[in-house]
Specification:
With about 375 residues, the chain is of the alpha+beta class. It has nine helices and 19 strands. It folds into two domains: about 140 residues, DNA methylase specificity domains (Adenine-n6-DNA-methyltransferase TaqI, Chain A, domain 2), CATH 3.90.220.20; about 130 residues, DNA methylase specificity domains (Adenine-n6-DNA-methyltransferase TaqI, Chain A, domain 2), CATH 3.90.220.
């Protein structure tokens, strides 16, 4: 990379910035899990996709474009035609060689350009977008597409091989399900779980973060001791690390809840936070890392009825939300053992798919890079 020649390019020189063909309100459409056309919103997870819509195809946005979430600067390559929610701009390439292979390089460069903006602090209107400058590999005064595609292929090969090594060393390649794990999966599939409804207030104390650190006024570093948690839905809510007064740390073994966005993450270790983060401190003695994901999953189901950004999740709203938790058929208490067993089983199933993917990908990428 050090020997690469770089050129500066305005986004307006590379893309035509268009308003989405139609903005579909999540509260007024039927969002399905599987379908033909993705529904792209401003979330930073799952390639911006919230599900699928079955709507008039005349309102589709073209594939081989970039979806840009205003307010959040969430940027994703969309290979196929798609519908969108509110505040999404569509970046249509002006460069004919733009495709799936090199799109990730454009996205990486754009993310660097927008990293100086704080999340939610700037409304990225068309004029702001047009004038942003990104750096791209250049050869003979033109974009070096050949280098970009070769670099992406080699990078992918390296990451896949690193994954293979990690799975082997950590023992995660052992995905054989135990009898208890098979039983837990069977209960889930056959709907034999005993459920009980709890308000969040029965399970957690909801407190305000010890101190709100403004991202524009602190030094965020890549590696450090204490994570800096914000409202993003990426990377467990973590934006980086900060070196601040430890008296403002929030306790570990808690849940961080991003207001406005309902981003919910388990935080194993002490952490600092940005604005609009509530801390959920467990009232349950057995709450821990091994079962936290079950609580978070059921909370996410509860909050899925809310449209992103439409509701400010204040403490009163949070306290009264109802979640369903498995209980033991014998003593009617929360069944922590079942939850942890089921989570282990699901993790093994996911890892099995990852192992299969990595094995296939390694073979393919070795052919590409020799």
């Amino acid at each position: 990379m050090a020997s690469v020649e770089w050129g500066k390019y305005r986004i307006d020189d590379l893309f035509k910035i268009q308003t989405s063909a139609k903005r579909f309100d999540a509260n007024k459409v039927n969002i399905i899990e599987n379908g033909r056309y993705p529904y792209v919103v401003r979330t930073s997870s799952n390639n911006g996709q919230k599900g699928f819509l079955d709507e008039n195809e005349s309102f589709l946005n073209a594939g081989n474009t970039i979806s840009f979430g205003q307010d959040t600067a969430t940027i994703f390559y969309q290979e196929k035609p798609y519908f969108t929610g509110d505040k999404i701009k569509v970046l249509v390439p002006k460069v004919y060689k733009f495709n799936k292979k090199n799109a990730q390089f454009f996205l990486a460069s754009m993310n660097i350009a927008f990293s100086k903006f704080s999340w939610g602090s700037s409304r990225f209107n068309v004029d702001v977008l047009k004038e942003q400058v990104i750096m791209l590999p250049t050869k003979c005064d033109s974009i070096d597409f050949e280098f970009m595609e070769s670099f992406i292929e080699e990078l992918e090969a390296e990451r896949i091989e690193e994954l293979e090594a990690y799975l082997s060393v950590s023992g995660l390649k052992d995905t054989q399900l135990t009898a208890d794990e098979l039983s837990a999966l069977d209960k889930l599939k056959s709907n034999k779980i005993f459920w009980k409804e709890y308000t969040i207030d029965q399970l957690f104390d909801i407190v305000t973060t010890a101190h709100r650190f403004d991202a524009n006024k602190i030094n965020i570093i890549e590696n450090g001791r204490y994570p800096y948690i914000v409202r993003t839905s990426n990377n467990n809510g973590q934006r980086g690390f900060i070196d601040e007064n430890p008296i403002y740390l929030n306790s570990g073994n808690t849940i961080s809840f991003g207001q406005d966005t309902a981003t919910i993450f388990y935080q194993e270790k002490p952490y600092f936070t940005g604005d609009k983060i509530k801390i959920l401190i467990p009232k349950l003695l057995n709450f821990r890392k091994e079962n936290a994901q079950f609580f978070i999953s059921t909370m996410n189901l509860t909050f899925s009825n809310f449209t992103w950004g439409s509701t400010r999740f204040n403490v009163d709203i949070l306290k009264n939300q109802i979640v369903k938790i498995p209980i033991s058929s014998k003593d009617k208490e929360i069944d922590f053992v079942f939850m942890e067993t089921l989570i282990k089983a699901i993790q093994k199933l996911v890892i099995a798919d990852v192992v299969k993917f990595s094995d296939e990908k390694i073979k393919a990428t070795k052919q590409v890079v020799g």
